[in-house]
Amino acid sequence: MRKFAIAKIEPKHRITKQYMDLQQRINAFVKLGEFINQFQQNKISKNDKIEANDLFFDGFKHQIKLAQEHNGWFTQQNITFTLENWSNVLSNKNINRWIEKYQFNINNPKTVAIIMAGNIPLVGFHDFLSVLISGHNVLVKQSSNDKHLLPFLAKYLEVIEPNFKGKIKFTEEKLENFDAVIATGSDNTARYFEYYFKDKPSIIRKNRNSVAILTGNETNEELEALSHDIFRYYGLGCRNVSKLFVPKDYNFDAFFNAVYKWHPIINESKYANNYDYNKAVYLMSEFDMLENGFLMIKEDESYASPIATLFYEYYDNKTDLEHKLKTDADKIQCIVANNFSTDEIIFGKTQKPQLWEYADNIDTVEFLLKM
Protein backbone atom coordinates (compact mmCIF):
# COMPACT_ATOMS: atom_id res chain seq x y z
CA MET A 1 0.00 0.00 0.00
CA ARG A 2 2.78 2.42 0.84
CA LYS A 3 4.52 1.83 -2.51
CA PHE A 4 1.26 2.23 -4.38
CA ALA A 5 0.52 5.56 -2.65
CA ILE A 6 3.90 6.98 -3.54
CA ALA A 7 3.62 5.90 -7.16
CA LYS A 8 0.13 7.34 -7.40
CA ILE A 9 1.02 10.83 -6.14
CA GLU A 10 4.04 11.56 -8.39
CA PRO A 11 3.99 15.24 -7.39
CA LYS A 12 7.31 16.99 -7.73
CA HIS A 13 8.26 17.07 -11.39
CA ARG A 14 4.68 17.65 -12.46
CA ILE A 15 4.87 21.16 -11.01
CA THR A 16 7.37 22.07 -13.70
CA LYS A 17 5.41 23.10 -16.75
CA GLN A 18 6.07 25.20 -19.79
CA TYR A 19 3.71 27.94 -18.64
CA MET A 20 4.43 29.86 -15.45
CA ASP A 21 1.73 32.13 -14.07
CA LEU A 22 2.30 35.61 -12.70
CA GLN A 23 1.95 34.58 -9.07
CA GLN A 24 4.71 32.01 -9.46
CA ARG A 25 7.00 34.70 -10.82
CA ILE A 26 6.12 37.06 -7.98
CA ASN A 27 6.71 34.34 -5.39
CA ALA A 28 10.13 33.55 -6.85
CA PHE A 29 11.32 37.14 -6.65
CA VAL A 30 9.97 37.50 -3.12
CA LYS A 31 12.05 34.47 -2.16
CA LEU A 32 15.05 36.02 -3.92
CA GLY A 33 14.53 39.15 -1.81
CA GLU A 34 14.52 37.02 1.33
CA PHE A 35 17.75 35.35 0.22
CA ILE A 36 19.65 38.58 -0.41
CA ASN A 37 18.28 40.07 2.82
CA GLN A 38 20.96 38.00 4.57
CA PHE A 39 23.65 40.25 3.07
CA GLN A 40 23.22 43.49 5.00
CA GLN A 41 25.60 46.44 5.31
CA ASN A 42 26.07 45.93 9.02
CA LYS A 43 26.11 42.15 9.06
CA ILE A 44 26.12 39.15 6.75
CA SER A 45 24.26 36.45 8.61
CA LYS A 46 22.90 33.10 7.46
CA ASN A 47 19.21 32.39 8.02
CA ASP A 48 18.55 28.66 8.02
CA LYS A 49 14.90 29.22 7.11
CA ILE A 50 15.78 30.54 3.65
CA GLU A 51 14.97 28.11 0.86
CA ALA A 52 18.00 26.41 -0.79
CA ASN A 53 20.32 28.36 1.50
CA ASP A 54 22.78 25.52 2.03
CA LEU A 55 23.36 25.47 -1.71
CA PHE A 56 23.75 29.21 -2.22
CA PHE A 57 24.70 31.21 0.90
CA ASP A 58 28.43 30.52 0.97
CA GLY A 59 28.61 30.67 -2.81
CA PHE A 60 27.11 34.14 -2.91
CA LYS A 61 29.52 35.35 -0.22
CA HIS A 62 32.27 34.18 -2.56
CA GLN A 63 30.73 35.99 -5.52
CA ILE A 64 30.68 39.22 -3.49
CA LYS A 65 34.37 38.71 -2.77
CA LEU A 66 35.11 38.09 -6.45
CA ALA A 67 33.16 41.21 -7.46
CA GLN A 68 35.25 43.28 -5.06
CA GLU A 69 38.51 41.85 -6.35
CA HIS A 70 37.51 42.35 -9.98
CA ASN A 71 36.31 45.95 -9.65
CA GLY A 72 37.88 48.29 -7.11
CA TRP A 73 34.80 50.53 -7.12
CA PHE A 74 32.66 47.61 -5.89
CA THR A 75 33.47 47.70 -2.19
CA GLN A 76 31.63 45.34 0.14
CA GLN A 77 29.81 48.37 1.57
CA ASN A 78 28.51 49.41 -1.84
CA ILE A 79 27.57 45.85 -2.83
CA THR A 80 25.70 45.17 0.41
CA PHE A 81 24.02 48.60 0.16
CA THR A 82 22.63 47.51 -3.22
CA LEU A 83 21.57 44.12 -1.88
CA GLU A 84 19.91 45.64 1.17
CA ASN A 85 17.89 47.98 -1.04
CA TRP A 86 16.78 45.16 -3.32
CA SER A 87 15.82 42.98 -0.36
CA ASN A 88 13.57 45.80 0.88
CA VAL A 89 12.00 46.36 -2.53
CA LEU A 90 11.34 42.70 -3.38
CA SER A 91 8.44 42.20 -1.01
CA ASN A 92 5.09 40.78 -2.01
CA LYS A 93 3.43 44.11 -1.15
CA ASN A 94 5.85 46.20 -3.23
CA ILE A 95 5.78 43.94 -6.26
CA ASN A 96 1.99 43.83 -6.31
CA ARG A 97 1.75 47.61 -5.96
CA TRP A 98 4.19 47.94 -8.88
CA ILE A 99 2.35 45.65 -11.26
CA GLU A 100 -1.28 46.32 -10.31
CA LYS A 101 -1.86 48.78 -13.19
CA TYR A 102 -0.72 46.37 -15.91
CA GLN A 103 -2.53 43.61 -17.77
CA PHE A 104 -0.29 40.54 -17.97
CA ASN A 105 -1.50 38.42 -20.87
CA ILE A 106 1.69 37.22 -22.55
CA ASN A 107 0.83 33.97 -24.35
CA ASN A 108 3.76 34.01 -26.74
CA PRO A 109 6.88 34.99 -24.79
CA LYS A 110 9.58 36.88 -26.67
CA THR A 111 13.30 36.97 -25.99
CA VAL A 112 14.46 40.38 -24.75
CA ALA A 113 18.18 41.17 -24.87
CA ILE A 114 19.55 43.41 -22.12
CA ILE A 115 22.89 45.16 -22.55
CA MET A 116 23.89 46.19 -19.05
CA ALA A 117 26.14 48.96 -17.81
CA GLY A 118 28.67 48.22 -15.07
CA ASN A 119 29.01 51.48 -13.21
CA ILE A 120 27.39 50.31 -9.96
CA PRO A 121 26.60 46.82 -8.61
CA LEU A 122 23.58 45.10 -10.19
CA VAL A 123 22.73 48.24 -12.13
CA GLY A 124 20.77 46.22 -14.71
CA PHE A 125 18.73 44.20 -12.21
CA HIS A 126 15.53 46.22 -12.66
CA ASP A 127 15.51 45.48 -16.40
CA PHE A 128 16.19 41.80 -15.67
CA LEU A 129 13.31 41.72 -13.18
CA SER A 130 10.97 43.60 -15.53
CA VAL A 131 11.51 41.18 -18.42
CA LEU A 132 10.94 38.09 -16.30
CA ILE A 133 7.98 39.45 -14.33
CA SER A 134 6.36 40.33 -17.67
CA GLY A 135 6.58 36.70 -18.76
CA HIS A 136 9.27 37.06 -21.43
CA ASN A 137 12.64 35.35 -21.75
CA VAL A 138 15.83 37.29 -21.07
CA LEU A 139 19.18 37.28 -22.84
CA VAL A 140 21.75 39.20 -20.79
CA LYS A 141 25.00 40.72 -21.98
CA GLN A 142 26.77 42.03 -18.91
CA SER A 143 29.47 44.63 -18.55
CA SER A 144 32.87 43.13 -17.78
CA ASN A 145 32.90 45.39 -14.70
CA ASP A 146 29.90 43.67 -13.11
CA LYS A 147 29.72 40.02 -14.07
CA HIS A 148 29.72 38.02 -10.83
CA LEU A 149 26.54 38.81 -8.92
CA LEU A 150 23.61 38.52 -11.32
CA PRO A 151 24.37 35.07 -12.85
CA PHE A 152 24.51 33.60 -9.36
CA LEU A 153 21.19 35.17 -8.37
CA ALA A 154 19.70 33.88 -11.62
CA LYS A 155 20.78 30.35 -10.66
CA TYR A 156 19.04 30.80 -7.32
CA LEU A 157 15.84 31.79 -9.14
CA GLU A 158 16.04 28.68 -11.31
CA VAL A 159 16.39 26.43 -8.27
CA ILE A 160 13.51 27.88 -6.27
CA GLU A 161 11.32 28.18 -9.37
CA PRO A 162 12.31 25.52 -11.96
CA ASN A 163 10.03 27.09 -14.57
CA PHE A 164 12.63 29.84 -14.97
CA LYS A 165 15.00 27.29 -16.48
CA GLY A 166 15.40 28.02 -20.16
CA LYS A 167 14.05 31.56 -19.74
CA ILE A 168 17.35 33.10 -18.56
CA LYS A 169 20.51 33.15 -20.63
CA PHE A 170 23.80 35.03 -20.32
CA THR A 171 26.21 35.58 -23.19
CA GLU A 172 29.57 37.20 -23.82
CA GLU A 173 29.25 36.73 -27.56
CA LYS A 174 27.43 38.71 -30.21
CA LEU A 175 23.72 38.98 -29.44
CA GLU A 176 21.63 36.68 -31.60
CA ASN A 177 18.08 35.32 -31.71
CA PHE A 178 16.26 38.03 -29.78
CA ASP A 179 13.10 40.03 -30.44
CA ALA A 180 13.71 43.29 -28.57
CA VAL A 181 16.50 45.02 -26.72
CA ILE A 182 17.08 47.21 -23.67
CA ALA A 183 20.52 48.81 -23.80
CA THR A 184 22.26 51.21 -21.45
CA GLY A 185 25.46 53.06 -22.22
CA SER A 186 27.11 56.38 -22.88
CA ASP A 187 25.88 58.94 -25.41
CA ASN A 188 28.41 57.54 -27.88
CA THR A 189 27.44 53.89 -27.46
CA ALA A 190 23.75 54.88 -27.59
CA ARG A 191 24.22 56.15 -31.13
CA TYR A 192 25.74 52.79 -32.05
CA PHE A 193 22.88 50.94 -30.33
CA GLU A 194 20.26 53.03 -32.11
CA TYR A 195 21.78 52.19 -35.49
CA TYR A 196 22.53 48.54 -34.79
CA PHE A 197 19.09 47.79 -33.28
CA LYS A 198 17.04 50.05 -35.57
CA ASP A 199 14.93 47.11 -36.73
CA LYS A 200 14.08 45.89 -33.23
CA PRO A 201 11.73 47.29 -30.57
CA SER A 202 14.10 48.95 -28.14
CA ILE A 203 14.77 51.11 -25.13
CA ILE A 204 18.13 52.85 -25.52
CA ARG A 205 19.41 54.77 -22.50
CA LYS A 206 22.06 57.48 -22.66
CA ASN A 207 24.06 59.49 -20.14
CA ARG A 208 22.02 61.16 -17.43
CA ASN A 209 22.92 62.87 -14.19
CA SER A 210 21.03 64.03 -11.13
CA VAL A 211 20.79 67.49 -9.63
CA ALA A 212 19.85 69.03 -6.31
CA ILE A 213 18.15 72.39 -5.82
CA LEU A 214 19.13 74.30 -2.69
CA THR A 215 17.55 77.46 -1.29
CA GLY A 216 19.81 78.14 1.66
CA ASN A 217 17.06 77.17 4.10
CA GLU A 218 17.90 73.46 4.26
CA THR A 219 18.35 71.87 7.65
CA ASN A 220 21.57 70.14 8.59
CA GLU A 221 19.69 66.82 8.42
CA GLU A 222 18.61 67.50 4.83
CA LEU A 223 22.15 68.41 3.77
CA GLU A 224 23.54 65.31 5.51
CA ALA A 225 20.98 63.23 3.61
CA LEU A 226 22.08 64.92 0.39
CA SER A 227 25.65 63.78 1.04
CA HIS A 228 24.49 60.19 0.50
CA ASP A 229 23.02 61.17 -2.86
CA ILE A 230 26.41 62.62 -3.79
CA PHE A 231 28.96 60.12 -2.43
CA ARG A 232 27.25 56.71 -2.55
CA TYR A 233 28.94 54.53 -5.21
CA TYR A 234 31.60 57.29 -5.41
CA GLY A 235 29.19 59.31 -7.53
CA LEU A 236 29.32 56.82 -10.41
CA GLY A 237 25.57 56.28 -10.79
CA CYS A 238 23.13 58.26 -12.90
CA ARG A 239 21.07 58.78 -9.75
CA ASN A 240 24.03 60.37 -7.95
CA VAL A 241 23.78 64.13 -7.56
CA SER A 242 26.55 65.64 -9.68
CA LYS A 243 25.34 69.24 -9.73
CA LEU A 244 23.80 71.78 -7.37
CA PHE A 245 21.58 74.71 -8.28
CA VAL A 246 21.97 77.42 -5.65
CA PRO A 247 20.67 80.99 -5.25
CA LYS A 248 22.92 84.00 -5.72
CA ASP A 249 25.33 84.59 -2.81
CA TYR A 250 24.75 81.07 -1.48
CA ASN A 251 27.05 80.29 1.46
CA PHE A 252 28.55 76.81 1.14
CA ASP A 253 29.71 76.59 4.78
CA ALA A 254 26.63 74.69 5.97
CA PHE A 255 26.90 72.34 3.01
CA PHE A 256 30.56 71.54 3.67
CA ASN A 257 29.88 70.97 7.37
CA ALA A 258 27.02 68.58 6.61
CA VAL A 259 28.93 66.44 4.09
CA TYR A 260 32.05 66.15 6.26
CA LYS A 261 30.85 62.78 7.59
CA TRP A 262 32.02 61.34 4.25
CA HIS A 263 35.63 62.50 4.66
CA PRO A 264 37.01 58.93 5.14
CA ILE A 265 36.30 58.38 1.43
CA ILE A 266 39.60 60.12 0.63
CA ASN A 267 41.41 57.14 2.19
CA GLU A 268 40.21 54.90 -0.62
CA SER A 269 42.88 54.85 -3.29
CA LYS A 270 40.78 54.95 -6.47
CA TYR A 271 38.78 57.90 -5.21
CA ALA A 272 41.90 59.68 -3.90
CA ASN A 273 43.67 59.26 -7.24
CA ASN A 274 40.77 60.92 -9.04
CA TYR A 275 40.64 63.71 -6.46
CA ASP A 276 44.36 64.44 -6.83
CA TYR A 277 44.26 64.32 -10.61
CA ASN A 278 41.21 66.57 -11.01
CA LYS A 279 42.52 69.01 -8.42
CA ALA A 280 45.79 69.30 -10.33
CA VAL A 281 43.92 69.93 -13.58
CA TYR A 282 41.82 72.66 -12.00
CA LEU A 283 44.82 74.34 -10.39
CA MET A 284 46.89 74.29 -13.56
CA SER A 285 43.93 75.65 -15.51
CA GLU A 286 43.45 78.32 -12.83
CA PHE A 287 39.80 77.43 -12.37
CA ASP A 288 38.06 78.88 -9.32
CA MET A 289 36.87 76.19 -6.96
CA LEU A 290 36.16 75.39 -3.33
CA GLU A 291 37.41 72.21 -1.70
CA ASN A 292 37.56 70.59 1.71
CA GLY A 293 40.19 67.88 1.31
CA PHE A 294 37.91 65.24 -0.22
CA LEU A 295 35.42 67.13 -2.43
CA MET A 296 35.82 69.99 -4.90
CA ILE A 297 32.93 72.18 -5.99
CA LYS A 298 33.22 74.21 -9.16
CA GLU A 299 30.90 76.58 -10.97
CA ASP A 300 30.06 74.92 -14.28
CA GLU A 301 27.05 74.69 -16.61
CA SER A 302 27.64 70.99 -17.32
CA TYR A 303 25.68 68.25 -15.58
CA ALA A 304 28.29 65.46 -15.56
CA SER A 305 31.03 66.22 -13.06
CA PRO A 306 34.23 64.17 -12.60
CA ILE A 307 34.71 61.91 -9.58
CA ALA A 308 35.39 63.89 -6.38
CA THR A 309 33.94 67.02 -8.02
CA LEU A 310 30.51 68.60 -7.72
CA PHE A 311 29.40 71.29 -10.16
CA TYR A 312 27.14 74.15 -9.18
CA GLU A 313 25.21 76.85 -10.98
CA TYR A 314 23.39 79.91 -9.68
CA TYR A 315 19.72 80.55 -10.38
CA ASP A 316 17.80 83.82 -10.17
CA ASN A 317 14.26 82.57 -9.59
CA LYS A 318 12.16 79.43 -9.54
CA THR A 319 10.44 80.11 -12.86
CA ASP A 320 13.69 80.41 -14.81
CA LEU A 321 15.10 77.31 -13.15
CA GLU A 322 11.96 75.31 -13.92
CA HIS A 323 12.29 76.32 -17.57
CA LYS A 324 15.95 75.31 -17.69
CA LEU A 325 15.31 71.92 -16.11
CA LYS A 326 12.42 71.27 -18.48
CA THR A 327 14.61 72.18 -21.46
CA ASP A 328 17.38 69.86 -20.23
CA ALA A 329 15.05 67.05 -19.12
CA ASP A 330 16.76 64.48 -21.35
CA LYS A 331 20.01 65.04 -19.43
CA ILE A 332 18.55 64.68 -15.94
CA GLN A 333 17.70 61.49 -14.05
CA CYS A 334 16.62 62.83 -10.64
CA ILE A 335 15.82 66.24 -9.17
CA VAL A 336 16.45 66.39 -5.43
CA ALA A 337 14.62 69.23 -3.71
CA ASN A 338 12.15 70.26 -1.05
CA ASN A 339 8.85 71.65 -2.38
CA PHE A 340 10.22 72.62 -5.77
CA SER A 341 8.20 70.36 -8.08
CA THR A 342 5.93 67.33 -8.12
CA ASP A 343 8.66 65.20 -9.69
CA GLU A 344 11.28 65.83 -7.02
CA ILE A 345 12.95 63.25 -4.79
CA ILE A 346 13.54 64.07 -1.14
CA PHE A 347 17.07 64.43 0.13
CA GLY A 348 18.87 61.14 0.68
CA LYS A 349 16.60 58.91 -1.41
CA THR A 350 18.08 58.91 -4.92
CA GLN A 351 19.84 55.58 -4.41
CA LYS A 352 16.75 53.89 -2.99
CA PRO A 353 14.33 53.87 -5.95
CA GLN A 354 11.06 51.99 -5.85
CA LEU A 355 10.11 49.46 -8.52
CA TRP A 356 7.79 51.97 -10.22
CA GLU A 357 10.52 54.63 -10.52
CA TYR A 358 11.87 53.91 -13.98
CA ALA A 359 15.21 54.96 -15.43
CA ASP A 360 14.79 57.87 -17.88
CA ASN A 361 11.08 57.83 -16.92
CA ILE A 362 10.47 55.14 -19.55
CA ASP A 363 7.98 52.54 -18.36
CA THR A 364 9.87 49.32 -19.05
CA VAL A 365 7.00 46.98 -18.21
CA GLU A 366 4.57 48.84 -20.46
CA PHE A 367 7.11 48.55 -23.29
CA LEU A 368 7.47 44.82 -22.67
CA LEU A 369 3.74 44.12 -22.50
CA LYS A 370 3.03 46.03 -25.72
CA MET A 371 5.86 44.40 -27.64
State Rg.
23 Å
| Strand content bin | 5-15%
| Category by helix and strand content | alpha/beta
What is the highest CATH level, the class of the largest domain? Alpha Beta
Question: Strand order, biggest sheet?
Answer: 8-9-10-7-6-11
The tally of strands reads 11
CATH topology of the largest domain: Aldehyde Dehydrogenase, Chain A, domain 1
Largest sheet: 6 strands, mixed
CATH homology superfamily of the largest domain: Aldehyde Dehydrogenase, Chain A, domain 1
Average the pLDDT over all residues and give the rounded result. Answer: 93
- The CATH architecture category of the largest domain equals 3-Layer(aba) Sandwich
Shape type: globular
Distance between the termini: 53 Å
Number of helices, counting only DSSP H or I runs of 4 residues or more: 13
> Topology as H/E string?
HHHHHEHEHEEHEEHEHHEEEHEH
Helix content: 25-40%
How many domain regions? 2
Uncertain parts: 1-18
Q: Your description of this structure?
A:
The protein has 371 residues and is of the alpha/beta class. The protein has 13 helices and 11 strands. The longest helix has 18 residues, at 53-70. The strands form 2 sheets. The protein has a 6-stranded mixed beta sheet with strand order 8-9-10-7-6-11. Strands 3-2-1-4-5 form a 5-stranded parallel beta sheet, sandwiched between helices. The protein has 2 domains: 21-206, Aldehyde Dehydrogenase, Chain A, domain 1, CATH 3.40.605; 209-336, Aldehyde Dehydrogenase, Chain A, domain 2 (3-Layer(aba) Sandwich), CATH 3.40.309. It has helices at residues 2-9, 22-36, 53-70, 76-89, 92-99, 125-134, 149-160, 187-196, 220-231, 253-259, 269-284, 318-327, 364-370, and strands spanning 111-115, 137-141, 168-170, 180-184, 202-205, 209-213, 241-247, 290-291, 296-299, 309-315, 332-336. This is Acyl-CoA reductase.
